[in-house]
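User: Design a sequence. Structure:
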């Protein structure tokens, strides 16, 4: 009935796919769905690592039962208390009343608050171990990746890292959980978008977590979202290292613009033409009215260059661009090359605010921002083109 192919001897994926939810955390689009992963380790003692969203508890419990039959579970390892993983803890405790819940002090505070569970707990601290028989788990805290209680568990026999949300991605698991058995091309953009939106604010804590696991000979990564990584471990760790240092993946420019009646859009065309004429091939244009800011944010993590344009609106910045600025500022993205442009009808304000954003973010402002009054003139179009060229020239200085 279910895919019971083990990840390693007697270690099973018992997660579920969510193909129904439209918005993760009720605000992030899920065009390719999302998976909630949980893992069952069957040893002399039986341990379950994390649970799944409560909406899928039925399927989840049936999957576990299909493997265990009448046997009970000894330990529930709670690496992360966010409800997409912790949601089924209450039901699990009802079904397996003797289960001992393993977590740290912060986990237990949340466990009590969400589920009023405060008995049969086994508290672990940094570096503590738990023997299951042939296998031993070692726990490492990973605070603020991306909640304070987060920890990871390392299994010593097959070198498996149960990594909570780290190395996770949006997107369902289609047909097989292992990256060795599926085409993973569909995951890289969604992995970056997941990182940018969920973990992106916490670059420094992520770097600390990466340093901790660097000394472990990890051969398999079992995240709470997305594929089980076996073939692509080097790549996923390298990406996490880049993103958490706010280092761009490749040469390129994101142009994010808002436009009510097409004038700022015309300037957008001019700026993009200038960037490409300057020798930059990767130019991604996002209309903030059509593209959810999570996808734009993901591209801001991907590329070094960022150009934002919009009209003045009610004496300030166009609202959807303001939302994007807020999302970028919240993540504290570092070291971008940035410039801006905009338009107005009777009194300009947006370009002033967009220009000040470079100071807010401590980014280098490239060239002179362009501000256009009413219909776009030939001169302003040329200024927009030259602004794009300036950005390209500055980027080329990085990789001559
Ligand atoms: Fe996937 Fe932070 O929960």
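Assistant: Done.
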């Amino acid at each position: 009935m279910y895919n019971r192919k083990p990840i390693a001897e007697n270690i099973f994926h018992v997660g579920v796919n969510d193909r129904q939810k439209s918005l993760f955390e009720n605000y992030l689009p899920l065009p390719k769905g999302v998976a909630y992963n949980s893992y069952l380790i069957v040893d002399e003692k039986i341990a379950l690592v994390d649970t799944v969203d409560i909406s899928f508890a039925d399927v989840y419990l049936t999957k576990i039962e299909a493997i265990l039959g009448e046997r009970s579970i000894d330990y529930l390892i709670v690496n992360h208390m966010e409800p997409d993983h912790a949601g089924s803890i209450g039901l699990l405790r009802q079904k397996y009343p003797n289960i001992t819940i393993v977590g740290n002090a912060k986990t237990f505070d949340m466990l009590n608050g969400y589920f009023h569970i405060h008995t049969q707990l086994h508290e672990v601290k940094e570096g503590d171990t738990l023997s299951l028989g042939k296998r031993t788990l070692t726990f490492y805290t990973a605070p603020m990746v991306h909640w304070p209680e987060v920890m990871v568990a390392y299994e010593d026999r097959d070198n498996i890292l149960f990594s909570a949300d780290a190395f996770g991605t949006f997107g369902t698991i289609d047909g097989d959980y292992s990256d060795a058995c599926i085409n993973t091309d569909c995951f890289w953009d969604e992995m970056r978008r997941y990182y940018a939106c969920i973990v992106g604010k916490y670059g420094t804590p992520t770097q600390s977590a990466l340093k901790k696991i660097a000394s472990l000979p990890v051969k398999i990564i079992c995240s709470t979202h997305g594929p089980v990584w076996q073939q692509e471990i080097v790549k996923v760790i390298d990406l996490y290292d880049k993103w958490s240092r706010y280092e761009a993946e490749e040469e390129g420019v994101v142009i994010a613009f808002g436009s009510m009646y097409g004038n700022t859009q015309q300037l957008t065309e001019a700026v993009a033409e200038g960037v490409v004429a300057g020798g930059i091939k990767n130019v991604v244009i996002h209309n903030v009215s059509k593209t959810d800011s999570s996808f734009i944010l993901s591209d801001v993590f991907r590329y070094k260059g960022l150009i934002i344009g919009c009209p003045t609106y009610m004496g300030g910045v166009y609202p959807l661009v303001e939302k994007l600025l807020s999302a970028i500022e919240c993540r504290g993205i570092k070291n971008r090359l940035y410039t801006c442009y905009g338009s107005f009808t009777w009194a300009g304000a947006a370009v002033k605010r967009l220009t000040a954003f470079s100071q807010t973010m401590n980014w280098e402002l490239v060239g002179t921002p362009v501000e256009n009054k009413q219909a776009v003139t030939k001169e302003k179009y040329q200024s927009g083109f030259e602004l794009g060229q300036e950005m390209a020239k500055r980027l080329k200085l990085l990789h001559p």
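The two ends are 57 Å apart (CA to CA). The domain at 252-398 is CATH 3.40.50.360 (Rossmann fold).
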